[in-house]
Amino acid sequence: MMGKIPGRREKVLGGGWGDPALTSLKEFVLKSRWTCSVISGIGLQHEKTRFENLYKRAAMIKMPSQSCLPILRLSPGRIAEVSAVPCRLIRWVFLAGALVFLLSGSPACREQRVGDGKSTRSGTKSIEIKGSDTLVNLALAWAERYMQEHPEMRISVTGGGSGTGIASLMNHTADIANASREMKTEEIRAAEANGITPVEFVVARDAIAVVTNPSNPVSALTMQQISDIYTGKITNWRKVGGEDRPIVLLSRESNSGTYVYVLEHVIRMGERNSKLLFSPDTLLMPSSEGISTEVRQNPNAIGYDGLGYVTSDQKVLAVARDANSLYVLPSIPTVNDGSYPISRSLYMYTAGEPGGQVKTYLDWVLGPGQRLVSKLGFVPLH
Fold first, then answer.
1. What is the CA radius of gyration of the chain?
2. What CA–CA distance (Å, rounded) separates 382 from 139?
3. CA 311, CA 304: separation in Å to the nearest integer?
4. pLDDT above 90 (res 21)
5. Which of 183, 145, 143, 178 is nearest to 159 (CA)?
6. How far apart are CA 166 and CA 101, in angstroms?
7. CATH for 206-344?
8. Which residue intervals of 32-86 are DSSP H helices?
9. b/e string for 272-297 if b means 16 or more Cβ within 10 A?
10. What pLDDT is recorded for position 119?
11. How far apart (Å, rounded) are the C-alpha atoms in residues 112 and 100?
12. Does 165 score more than 60 pLDDT?
C-alpha cells in the first residue's frame, strides 16, 4: 500500500508541506504574477497576496506520495483545495499548460505592454482604459465619439477608482490610467521599479461640490468648517447655522482619487505635515451614485462629488476659503477664474511616452475631444 502524507491538520504556509512536489507547486504559484491566466480551465485572477491568503486557509492534504501529484484548485472567494490525480494524466496537463504559457509570451500572441494599444488579426485596434470613477462618464463619451469617427477602433473604459487605474497601468492591464488626482510619489517609485516611467496628461478640470439634502437650511460653509465636520470636530448642524440635528458624513472610498484630494486639500487644508483623517463615523460609498442616493434620502447627510455628477435633487453649498472671503458656488467660470476653492485637474497616465493609436487618441482628447467636456459638467482646458 502506498504511503500518505502524515498529519490531520497540516498548515500549508506554516511549514510541513510534506510532499516536495507540493512545495514546488507553492513556489511556482507564488512566483507567478499573472492577472488572468488559465490552468485546466480555471481562471486565476488573484495577485500574490490573494494566493497567500488562500494557502493560509487551505485544508489538510492527504494523497499517495509516489504515484500521484498534487493539484491546486483556486476559485474566487473560495479556499484553496488540493487533490491528487495520476501522474500519467497530469503529465499531459502540465505539458499543455507549459505550451500555452510559452506561446502567451511570444510576440505573436501577447498583448503589447508599452501602452501603444494593440491590434487583432481582423485589423481592429483596441485601447484599454481603467481608473477614476469621476472621469468614467467623460472617458466613455470620448471613447464613443472617437469610435464613431474611427470605426476600426475599439476602446474599453472601466472605472473602479484612480488607484485601480494606476495599479492596472503598472501591471500592464491598461494602456491608459484615468485619475482624478496626481500619482503619489510611492506609486511613481513602484512603477519605476516595475520598469515603467509614468507620463502625465492633464485632460480636463473639475470642481468638487459639497452637497446636502435640499431640506437642509445651511447654504454655505468655509473650508475650515468642512474640515471640522469631516474630522468629527463638528457633529451637529446647529454649530454651522442649521437645525439641531446630527451630521451624517458621506465620502467616497479610499481608492478614489476624489477621496484623496478631499483628504489632502480640504480636510488637511493643503498642509503636508497634517495628520488629520476622516472621522471613523464617515460612511464610505462605492460610487458617486451612492452619495447622491443617500443625500436625497437623508436630511442630515453631507457629501461631496465632482460637479459633473451633481443632480438637481441635491443642494450645492457655496464655499469660502475662510470667514473673511466670498462664498462661491462651483461652476465652469468660477473654476476658470480660480474663485472656487475646491477645484482640481483630471489626468490620464501612460506607461512611458505613448505611441501608435494611444498617442493618436490622446491627441484627439486634448484637441477636438475638449468640445465634449463642458457638456458633461466638467471644465475644458481651452
1. 26
2. 18
3. 12
4. no
5. 178
6. 26
7. 3.40.190.10
8. 48-56
9. eeeebebbeebebbebbebbbebbee
10. 59
11. 17
12. yes
Q: Position 193: which residue type?
A: A
**Rounded Cα distance, 223 and 341, in Å:** 8
Rounded to 5 degrees, φ, ψ at 339 are -80, -25
Q: Are 226 and 325 in contact (CB under 8 A)?
A: no
How large is the average pLDDT for residues 65-83? 35
Every domain of the chain and the residues it spans: 20-104, 118-205+351-376, 206-344
Look at domain 118-205+351-376 and name its CATH class.
Answer: alpha beta
Q: How far is CA 28 from CA 5, 172, 235, 273, in A?
A: 21, 21, 52, 43
| Cell reading at 3 | 504511503
Cα–Cα distances in Å, from 284 out to 133, 244, 303, 304? Answer: 14, 24, 10, 11
Exposure string of 17-39, with b = 16+ CB inside 10 Å and e = fewer, is bbbebbeebbeebeeeebeeeeb
**Site of grid cell 483556486:** 74
Give me the pLDDT at residue 124, please: 66
Give the Cα separation of 325 and 356 in Å (integer): 48
pLDDT band at 116 (very low <50, low <70, confident <90, very high): low
Please say whether the beta carbons of 217 and 243 come within 8 A: yes
How far does Cα 220 stand from its chain's mean position?
Answer: 32
Burial class (CB in 10 A: 0-12, 13-18, 19+), 218: middle
Indicate the residue type of 281. Answer: D
**Whole-number Å distance between alpha carbons of 179 and 167:** 11
- Domains 118-205+351-376 and 206-344 fall in the same CATH topology: yes
